[in-house]
TrEMBL record:
Residues 101-518 form the Solute-binding protein family domain. InterPro entries: Peptide/Ni-bd (IPR030678), SBP_5 (IPR039424), SBP_5_dom (IPR000914). It holds the Pfam family SBP_bac_5. It comes from the Bacteria. This is Peptide ABC transporter substrate-binding protein. GO terms for biological process: peptide transport. GO terms for cellular component: ATP-binding cassette (ABC) transporter complex; periplasmic space. It comes from Cellulomonas persica. PROSITE patterns: PROKAR_LIPOPROTEIN. GO terms for molecular function: peptide transmembrane transporter activity. Residues 1-21 form the signal peptide. Keywords: Signal.
Amino acid sequence: MRITRKAALAAVAAVSALSLAACSSDGDTGDDPTKGDDNAGISQDSAVNIAWNQPFYSANGTSMTGNATANNVILYMLNAGFNYYDEELNLVQDKSFGSYEKISDDPLQIKYTFADTAVWSDGTPAGPADLLLEWAAQSGKYTNVEAETDPETGEITNQDELDAGVYFDAASPAMALVTQVPEIDGKSITLTYDKPFADWETAISMNLPAHVVGQRALAIEDGVEAQDAVVKAIQDNDSATLSKIAKVWSTDFNFAQMPAEADKNLLVTSGAYTITEFVKDQYITLTANPDYKGDHKAAINKVTVRYNGDPMGQVQALQNGEVDLINPQATADLLTAVQKLDGVEVSTGAEGTYEHVDLQFANGGPFDPATYGGDADKALKVRQAFLKTIPRQAIVDKLITPLDPTMTTTRDSYTVVPGSPMYDGIVAGNGQAEAYGEVDIDGAKALLAEVGVANPTVRVLFDPNNTRRTNQFELIKASAAEAGITAVPYEVQTDWGTDLSNATDFYDAALFGWQSTSTAVTESDANYRTGATNNFYGYSNATVDAEFDKLQVETDPAEQEKILTAVEAELVKDAFGVTIFQFPGVTAWNPEKIGNVSKLTIAPTIFYGFWNWTAGEAASE
């Protein structure tokens, strides 16, 4: 029987994870362009359609299940927060929502103060209770039970225990450093860290409305009363009440279509937009929130994100006028196709996402020591053998360079972007290029022969609707076969993103992309630390954990580089997986429908600066 925190969400079948005619809504403000003082002047007819590859499935963007680009690009427009990145990737405080300041270095204390203009869309003020709840969920302080699953079926086997205990589907190394209950004073809340933390500015963000969580968990109708009850349960460490709160926080906000009328409070937001239409696997429509009081007001009244996992299908939709802005996973054929479209603007360049393959360490598959009676060295050599067959450079040569002639080399770092100050030093010291820079079929065969493993089968998880990933898999499959390894596509059960975090017993290797959401040096902590949010594979290395502990408090860039080099060397030594390439990007849009498009290299990419968008006359037709 396998133990995993992620598995507790396996029962939520209507959601997915990382990448990747509807009725009118209650949130529609009608035809009056001046309804709601804060949207005065915005045309109620202005609208834009944007194509995206993977449907939204969770309004909880910081949970293990919901932490995915597919969700967070939508949540970027739905919710406000204490800071955001500008076009130069400078972190800027949004003082119309609130402010924060470091009030002490020893101990490190950060004080957050909510502005009077920080208000949820149902009229309830946003405040310290919301941030306190997020801390409670992310810190691990109250979680007292893990989920156990049947390795054959993936079904939860201890649901009664989960229901009786406190289980937050979350884990944050940063918030684990805040063991004292944060102190609330009026509209302010102060977090005290047990030790210094280098990336404290991005350590915690606003997420779910505490009053809605309290209403749903505790059957309290009044929002303020429900909010207060959540605060009291956290401050009193009331496990019985926290059990209900944690269950709502972890599961209720996962939805893949418009919630039923009785669940409309799941749609409460704090930002410029609210969800007004949502058809499963087809589209989601956001409409300007008339009660939003902040600085980043909607410039276009209605934004509809239409889902299409086929990159060339997105190009066709742009050509047909069905969508106005696209940013699909690019291929050379796709770039040629968009460049041939009349009246379309095209932008290219490297993005903040990188492709990689990660391996499972604890799922009873070919890379798990348990498969070989606990023989860790045997499992390691099987992992190494498979990684030696992955044709990293051939993938770049065949799929990436034809799209962007400047992108000719593999990405050889797990933690930093090519071109960044630390990249060359880390690559020189991590050993990935030496171990897996070239395909080594003879070396793979020798490793398998040495440990007596013949013809292992590797189940590979990837998005079957993504043309570039399908092409990569075929190249990997053909190369692995030369070494006697059979690579087979994992048959997606729900959708590939959900299965990434919840079906970990049923695939052995995952082929997908990680997209940076910040410039924090500790961002990779969540991928490789034992039990961390993005570590879906049972990987655990005490040296890696210790190095990340050091990184959390280190502010000297030279020392940070040494620490990350040490982490990456361990990943190579353990055959955790390989990186392949930095994403080439192609963005195309119809300037008659949308203007002032400005894409960031990190999330939220093309949705950045929605408050600066302009809508042409055609957009209001």
